[in-house]
UniProtKB/TrEMBL annotation:
Residues 1-17 have a biased composition (Basic and acidic residues). The chain crosses the membrane at residues 68-86, 98-118, 125-144, 150-173, 185-205, 217-238, 259-284, 296-314, 326-345, 351-376, 388-410, 422-442. This is Major facilitator superfamily (MFS) profile domain-containing protein. Gene3D superfamilies: MFS general substrate transporter like domains. It comes from Podospora pseudoanserina. It holds the Pfam family MFS_1.
Length: 450
């Protein structure tokens, strides 16, 4: 019986990677007398089937996961300043759509490599994934500082760094379920805040140092910061329960008969197809359409990520009470409305208000997605495979979404087609809102409650 419990606990590690809902079995374990939160002085590790839900070791995992979010999504959210620099200076001979492939490749690999990182994590290779992924991220950033050609930037910043991000992102979230049950939402919220914090700081560093030290050293300074951040998870993060020994399919055939899940996944495709268009193009739009000075334009990405900090934490804190899918609808519809309003932004004040609000609502969309997958899954044993399927769909959308926007925009900023570009982004989010609403209605008919 104990062996069965241990297997069950291990099997849920990956599937609950970014879950913000309580688990009855984990709560039962939390009530055990082995709880380290009620006995913080205890040096005895609880058995694998008991979630400690606190303690120094558990919170060090949160710290490590926060550092990994800095090195992954934090960099992806920073690409807007690189996009603007490449378009105007380093890669000015290439159209915006080609340059967008660099950032979209990086983001897509974070999803797509994660499909394989999940099973490797379950098999007990967490430390191998962590160390290899951190190395690729730091190495790719250093190599980017030496690049002078398009193919070099694509290889270093796109493929190398993206592969490292994919190896570390999913396991860093999954490991928190081994340490938290009742406080899981708080732990995930704190960890996810690392992304917008980095997206706030890195654009300032790059824009300031690029002018005084040049592109090479501005990029290398960020690489040294990433190296220091990498030391935190490498030093402190470790799995608490033994790896799962059983075999498990990567495809859950029942999902193709699950209407709410399929509708939500289809909505996720359109959401991630266009969600990051403002992140990539707000700097260029500000300087060409909203009378924003060249010196202040990079700070638009900074403010966008600052707004995202609230979007990562507040919706997750409310989701347990009001429902993950309900909060997702609020965030997605708000994002769509704001992007339609982007067409009316013509000055600095409007740009600042837009990026702060869009950062908050879009941040909620990203942070709530895994929790909604759990809410729509029939049981926790299928969450991992359903997340993997969703990663494939979302990764494909991220890969092609912003290059399509770049192709619509055109090659020269003076003749850029901003109205169709903004409408492309807004309509994608509107379609996602409709499909998410459909998923909510189907789920209501299935379970009979909101």
């Amino acid at each position: 019986m104990k062996e069965k419990d241990s297997t069950s606990a291990s099997d849920s590690d990956r599937t609950e990677g970014e879950i913000s809902i309580p688990n009855d079995q984990n709560i039962a374990g939390f009530k055990s007398s082995h709880n380290t939160e009620t006995d913080p002085a205890s040096n005895v590790d609880p058995p694998p089937d008991v979630v400690p839900d606190g303690g120094l070791t558990a919170w060090l995992q949160v710290l490590g996961s926060t550092a990994i979010l800095v090195n992954t999504w934090g960099l992806i959210n920073t690409f807007g300043v690189f996009q603007a620099y490449y378009e105007t200076t380093l890669l000015s001979s290439h159209p915006p759509s080609s340059i967008s492939w660099i950032g979209s490749t990086q983001a897509a690999l974070l999803f797509l490599v994660g499909v394989f990182a999940g099973p490797l994590y379950d098999a007990g290779y967490f430390r191998h994934l962590l160390i290899t992924g951190m190395f690729l991220i730091v190495f790719g950033q250093f190599m980017t500082s030496l690049c002078t050609e398009y193919w070099q930037v694509l290889l270093a910043q796109g493929f190398c760094m993206g592969s490292g991000m994919g190896m570390t992102f999913l396991p860093s979230a999954a490991i928190l379920s081994q340490y938290f049950a009742r406080h899981r939402a708080l732990a995930l919220g704190i960890a996810s805040a690392g992304s917008p914090v980095a997206g706030t700081v890195f654009p300032i560093i790059f824009s300031k140092l690029e002018k005084s030290l040049g592109f090479g050293w501005a990029t290398r300074v960020i690489a040294f910061i990433l190296l220091g951040m990498s030391a935190i998870p490498v030093a402190f993060m470790k799995t608490r329960v033994p790896p799962h020994k059983g075999k498990k399919s990567l495809v859950d055939k029942s999902l193709f008969k699950d209407g709410p899940y399929l509708s939500f996944t289809a909505g996720g495709f359109f959401a991630f197809l266009t969600l990051y268009v403002p992140f990539f193009y707000i700097t260029l739009y500000g300087t060409s359409q909203a009378s924003v000075t060249e010196s202040f334009a990079p700070y638009l990405v900074t403010l966008l990520n600052a707004g995202s900090i609230f979007g990562r934490i507040i919706p997750n804190a409310l989701a347990d009470r009001f429902g993950c899918l309900n909060l997702m609808l609020v965030c997605m519809s708000g994002s769509a409305i704001l992007v339609f309003g982007w067409l009316g932004v013509k000055n600095l004040a409007g740009s600042v208000v837009f990026v702060l609000l869009y950062g908050a609502f879009s941040g909620g969309v990203v942070s709530l997605t895994p929790s909604v997958v759990v809410e729509l899954s029939p049981d926790l044993s299928r969450v991992g495979t359903r997340m993997g399927f969703g990663f494939i769909v979302s990764g494909t959308a991220v890969l092609i979404g912003t290059p399509i926007a770049g192709a619509v925009l055109g090659g020269e900023s003076a003749n850029a087609r901003w109205v169709p570009t903004v409408l492309y982004a807004a309509c994608g989010l509107l379609i996602a809102t409709f499909l998410y609403s459909t998923a909510r209605f189907l789920q209501y008919r299935k379970k009979g409650g909101w």
